[in-house]
Specification:
Structural class: mainly beta
Distance between the termini: 35 Å
Radius of gyration: 17 Å
Largest sheet: 4 strands, antiparallel
Helix content: under 10%
Strand content: over 45%
Strand order of the largest sheet: 1-2-3-4
Number of strands: 19
């Protein structure tokens, strides 16, 4: 838009569209370190509302996703024993609907919504951890399943995509097993359908997106394309 609109919005970390707004989250830049969730006008980029503070369960937000009029924000902190949290907001009003605090929201690295389920990729917190793919019922916050381990297609996850009846996860590779992965899961059962290993310099897979019948995956040296 214009120069001032870029200057006044600092430290953006993630962005999505939900309800009537563009939702963006900012890394904390104050002493309290809580961060901000902002609702932007899709046409002008103007910040229409900012949500912050412990009463709104904003505590170092790192990822945001949406489905229809529902928006979810994952926070690094704010849960029991300083675990992470996931908060749900009304996409049209910005009002808080509910906040979930369990150990399943620790070290979240990305999240997507499919139907009544939230899927998230997480680090398991260990030095050599392979990471975890977690499925949550967003109506109740109840855990549906955790999928972890290299044999199950998780190896320090870097990106996640929900497409049709499938969940795609990219992995960077861990210290114990440095091979990056692109893994496809059945969204209904959580079963691993296939995993594609990196080779040579094509490794450490990061972001993932779909365009038409092609899935694009970013890695350290460029992009990989998969036909689906």
């Amino acid at each position: 838009r214009n120069q001032s609109s870029f200057i006044k919005y600092q430290n953006p970390a993630d962005i999505t569209n939900g309800g009537k707004f563009i939702w963006s989250i900012s890394d904390p830049d104050d002493l309290e370190g809580r961060g901000v969730v902002s609702l932007l006008d899709p046409k002008t980029g103007e910040i229409l509302r900012s949500v912050s503070g412990s009463k709104n369960y904003i505590n170092d937000p790192i990822y945001v996703t949406s489905s229809g009029n529902h928006v979810w924000v994952s926070n690094l902190f704010g849960g029991f024993h300083d675990n992470g949290t996931v908060s749900e907001y009304d996409g049209n009003s910005g009002s808080l609907i509910k906040n979930f605090r369990t150990k399943n929201f620790t070290f979240v690295r990305g999240l997507v919504c499919r139907g009544s389920k939230l899927w998230m990729i997480r680090s398991d917190g260990s030095v050599h951890g392979a990471g975890v793919l977690t499925e949550i019922n967003w109506h109740t916050g109840a855990l549906v399943r955790n999928v972890s381990g290299f044999t199950n297609g998780i190896n320090e996850p870097g990106g996640i995509l929900s497409e049709g009846g499938h969940i795609w996860v990219t992995s960077l590779g861990s210290d114990l097993n440095p091979t990056g992965l692109i893994s496809e899961f059945d969204a209904n059962s959580g079963s691993l359908l296939q995993k594609i290993r990196g080779a040579g310099q094509i490794d450490e897979f990061l972001g993932i997106s779909r365009f038409g019948s092609t899935i694009w995956i970013a890695y350290g040296g460029g992009f990989v394309q998969l036909s689906i």
